Amino acid sequence: MADMLVKLYDLPPGFDFLARTAEGVIVRKPIGPEKHLMVDWVGEHFSDAWASEFDLSMGRIPPTSWIATESKEPIGFACYDATGLGLFGPMGVREDKRKKGIGRVLLLACLMEMKLKGYAYAVIGSVGPAGFYEKCCGAAAIPDSTPGIWYDMLRRDKPQRS
Fold this sequence. Notes:
Layout: E1 4-7, E2 25-28, H1 35-45, H2 48-58, E3 65-70, E4 73-80, E5 87-93, H3 102-116, E6 121-124, H4 130-137, E7 140-141
Parallel strand pairs: 5-6
Antiparallel strand pairs: 1-6, 1-7, 2-3, 3-4, 4-5
Helix pairs in contact: 1-2
């Protein structure tokens, strides 16, 4: 899976997209007391590797992550500057909550925050749904970027959770 590049300077200004979140869903920055709950949730619903990256994002001040909640329960997350500076991801939305625009809002929240910090570009690493990123933020594939920064990543012998 290739990496993709996003021109952050091409993003529309402001956080208006937050108002377009699905009814009853809150997208916001996580706070410190939520760290372990969210790290456990990401590990349970996605993978240990993604839980590690979310954990790293929570160690930054302010955290370089956003979460989506519904009825005070986590349903999604996104982070940046976890595996490397300027890298967006990982991002995940609970399977039964997908296709409701939540991933788009999480993505744009992270990218806008990166833009406001002075980044001109963001790299989305090892992309699965390329069409999603092309549509949401104009991301373009980076030629010859596979396997990227993860070329020698240590892995457990157990299969990754989806």
